[in-house]
TrEMBL record:
Protein name per Swiss-Prot or TrEMBL: DUF3995 domain-containing protein
InterPro entries membership: DUF3995
Keyword annotations of the record: Membrane, Transmembrane, Transmembrane helix
Residues forming coiled coils: none
Transmembrane segments: 12-33, 57-80, 92-117, 137-156
Amino acid sequence: MGPEHRAWVPPAWVAWGAVVAAFAFAAVSLLWATGSTLGLDTLGGTVERLGRARDPALLSANAVALVLKVLGGVLALALVQPWGRRLPRRPLLSLGWAGAAVLVVYGVLQVTSVALVAAHVVVPDEVLSARALRWRLLLWEPWFLVWGVLLAGATLRHQRLRPAS
């Protein structure tokens, strides 16, 4: 096949974007897992209240989220760094595609649900402040979606630059 038929490869910045999204999100979880209340008002509701009370279950959930996000960052690094080429191709691609799918689906569901609340189509059990609603609609929930799209791009890039042997 000639160069004019070559499949499109996402640019490197997409793959690096997945790395940055993962580790930046992990940093936020680290803050909250260690009991920081910084930014909790942007979440609102029960999460804010439990965070301010340093609820052990919420701190533990943030610790688990931290580990998962760091692992997501390592996965993204494996897809973009030369050392990732030494890893088994099929499991790495499977993890990349599965992670991307979970993040995109979760992000779409979260953005949609918060948008429906913001549009007054759905009335939640617990009312969020206008500030928390705005932050969740414009940052927290879309972050999952953006990270998932970037991870999909990183996975596609790795797949196309390292074809099956």
